[in-house]
Amino acid sequence: MQKALLLSALASGLLLASSAHAELNVAGLANTCNNCHGTGGVSAGESMPSIAGLPEGYLKNIMMEWKTGKRPSANMTRLISGYSDEEIAALAAYYSKLPWMPVKQKTDAKLVKLGKKVTEKCAGCHGDTGKSEDADTPSLHGQWSQYLQLEALKYRDDAFNMPNKQMVKAAKKLSDEEIKAVAEFYASQNK
Amino acid sequence: MSQINRREFIKLAAAASSVPVLGIPSLARAGAAKAKVVVIGGGYAGATAAKYVKLGDASIDVTLIEPNKVYTSCPLSNEVIVGHRDIKTLEIGYDGLKKRGINVLHDFVVGVDRAKKTVTTKGGKTLPYDALVVSPGIDFHYTGIEGYNESMIEDIPHAYKAGPQTLLLKKQLEAMPDGGKFVIVVPKGPFRCPPGPYERASLVANYFKHHGKAKSKVIILDANDSHSKKGLFNQAWAKMYGWEKEGMGTNGMIEWVKGAEGGTITKLDAKTKTVSSDFVDVKADVLNIIPPHKAGKIAADAGLTGASGNNFEKGWCKVEPMTMASAVDPSIYVVGDSCVAGEMPLYGNPNAAFDMPKSAHIAMTQAKVAAAAIVAKVNGQAVPQPYYANTCYSVVGDDYGISVAHLYRVEGGTFKYIKEGSGVSMMTMPDKSPVPAAYRKLEAEYAVGWLRNVMADAFS
Known about the structure:
The complex is a heterodimer. By secondary structure, chain A is mainly α.
């Protein structure tokens, strides 16, 4: 009886949903990311980046770098290793289509002023305000200040051996205060 | 595919057919809400389920029933005990959910009539449901330790449900003299927040260091023979708290006694705060007994818990992997700490299967799976592919965080632990050199960002 049911189920394609090669449900997959990155990919936590509206190329690249061990991370290297390349591509496409929502946060006016000056040399890639201008560069305007600081410190710290050598070179020239200032400046550009 | 059973087949067939799957004549629904969803319990799981059903289909009528007006997060409440965090930062109300059009009823559910599909409350209300989400969290078993009962928790706190109990343990810690013993009694698993007791031990030792009580001890009497993130905890303890090795009478600030070697406590003398096992008697200055857990009472009353079976099915609610629907009632979804999904891992046994840990993070992904399944069912769509994930941070010292991640999928109708996407923070760098402090600091910062996001994702 059970076998007969099973055969008819197979014939009608009903088993698709629970088969090993299940159809990719990218919204469901993204729901698991949103626990840490916020509902709809807009973060509510200062140390965690918003990911909604980041460029597709950047998102795909960063996830693939974690997966292949090229980019160190305290935690993302572990989680992302459980995702197929297809899932990573789908997630990158999904989040890139959501709107970028700059977060409103308090920033220090003095540091913002200093940051504006320091970031003049970043403008070649990041634009005047950190607004992404190409598919491989992340949006920084209105990103969480603390996240930006932590990330910049990773570029400066040899312990992380970050992959983007241009960023490493730039970060190494910055003092602690300047790193804070850069982060505060981009964070304040929340329009 | 051999895994598919008749019930699942019928469910899939129902989901794929165009017949109204909830069995309600379409006339009865005309003009009213498309369907009624009731959620019992407004913790991380219940709040998330309510929010995501509404996000998935705004025309579904969603009611969340929760006795408390303010929820206090258990994650990071160990920081409150040692004075690193104000408990107010862990508190959140239900206004965010109300703004989304969810009915929030501050009441207590006293019964579920599964035949009539209604829920009754202490306040005298009877609510009909098309789909019911049961997320009552855990209850404690106060039996099992001779001389211990529920009336003692004002003197011997568990502090394993955040709120007044957390503040009570904090007060006792602060009053403890230098050279005293802070004893944590850990129950046999499964219990919520598997690294919780060990994170607590770490932070209490940290408190001793910073408050002139360095001669004091934290003694963990554990009914289990291993525990979550053990290697990482031991490494952190050695670095910061003089950890030497397992067992009683070591020199470090933290001692851990496993179940097989005297950690299983069977007796309490409440007057002297002395706990005993077959091997040891320990007199505590501060005694923190975490009682064994079971699914919240309403889950048992509704007949959703296993009456028999192994340690992990008895007293817990078994669920269908694709949807989080109860294994005994397809109209009810059990999410959060009260469910058992997969088989419980036996820490230290490399061949063990991996159950989902009882954490806020996994509870929320379970709730999102249930919400998507409910929305699909109401709208006559196929069951969406589910995904489950966990991230669990423990802050164990100044600028020192560690974590564990888990991924689960469903293949062939059963839960599958994805080893490649899971695991703990690095013990060493790939070249075997020590992990730089910057990595541990980052995870301590991420723990806080994680907290803010899970609270917002569930309640806002």
